[in-house]
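Sat 14:20. Reprocessing the chain from the morning session after the first attempt stalled halfway. Input below, unchanged.
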Amino acid sequence: MVDVESDGPAPGLFSMVSLGCVRVDRQMTTTFKATFAPISDRFNPDALAISNIDRATHEAYPDPALGMAAFAAFLEANARGRPVFIADNLAFDWQFTNYYFHRFVGRNPFGHSGRRIGDFYAGLEKKFGAASEWKQFRRTRHTHDPVDDAKGNVEALLHMADLHAVRLPD
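Finished this time. Tokens:
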């Protein structure tokens, strides 16, 4: 489960602020977090405020190449086979993660696809419009710390799987 915070709406034009990942299992103790210095001069102060930081704080974060290399190593050490990218807002989180992996690592360990929790839930409920209703199953507060947010999303995903007797991959 991956969550991204950024300083704007599109990678390359704007920058990733932080990335969090929680391995999907009942313990939810295998986690990763990195912060990233900006890669662009452009930023939206309101987007930074969501992460509770200002531009000077963002500029002091580490080189993105270090964080992305560490994330690739984390995935290699903690996934069996190719990891599956799962997110709340797949279109947003995926675009930043994919761009940063290709720019700083030269490859994306997730490959070219991912899963969106809302679509999973809407399918389980057989109700296209239910794509946001799953958020009620989070236990960890949504703080915009990417690990907290990813953990809440794992909690919701596990609850949905239990509710509908769906076996998630090991």
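Residues 146-163 form the longest helix (18 residues).
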